[in-house]
Amino acid sequence: MIKNLVQVTLDTALYPLGVYVHEQRKSGPDADMYVVYSLSGDAEEFHADNKVLVKAANPTVRFYYRSEKLDNYATRQIIQAREYLIESAMKAAGFTLPFGRFDAGDVDGIGYMVTVFEFEYWRVV
Amino acid sequence: MAVAGRFIQTSELEDAIAEIMEEYGDEIYQLTEEGLDVAESILIKNLKAASPGSPPHKVNFAKNWKSKGKKYKMLRYVGNSTMVQGPDGEIPLANIIEYSTNHGSPFIKKTFESSVDEMAAAVVNQIKKGV
Questions:
Q1: Taking the model in full, what pTM does it have?
Q2: A64 CA to chain B: closest CA distance, Å?
């Protein structure tokens, strides 16, 4: 359910812009930008009468873009716009971003910079 | 109201209580800050223990978990200063381990979450000791 929500939310925002969203690992041809998300946790937060009342899912969204996109102002502006779009689309879908997004660098060593978003999604179950 | 042979006004009592509460609040604040120092050291210890690779790591990754100082009141920051060379310059090894999809072995967030109860208990204990 959470994965579907992440996929649909990000596809709706990014697919029209040619940015594809992948679960856990990227597949297909190389692109200038793409997104990979994973679910890093779905903890039980509140209980009552031995039943789980509230759960908090933690999807991690990684936005990849070619490192040379940082070389000029126009492409940097596009990167920032995509980052903002990811954040605002996810927030509109009910996710929170308690610690904000941050630049993680080229974590895969493939010439793509990564912006990491660690979202939370609290829900009554 | 008569206290110890003299009369005090209700407003004086309010002021006296407010003053005591303020002092009490200051003391709780100070103890919480001390508790956070203990909580921080617990997190550092747990992160060191959970860091991948057999110590001593060749780039001292486990050893390099450190407090990043007290920038703001009631907050603590813990970070790892180990940097490694990437194709586009140096990059924090912690970012690779936590977020890389091809070299990753995430443990930082999990360690933090599993340390929360221990850290909270440390803060409460510190407050209890002081009051």
A1: 0.80
A2: 11
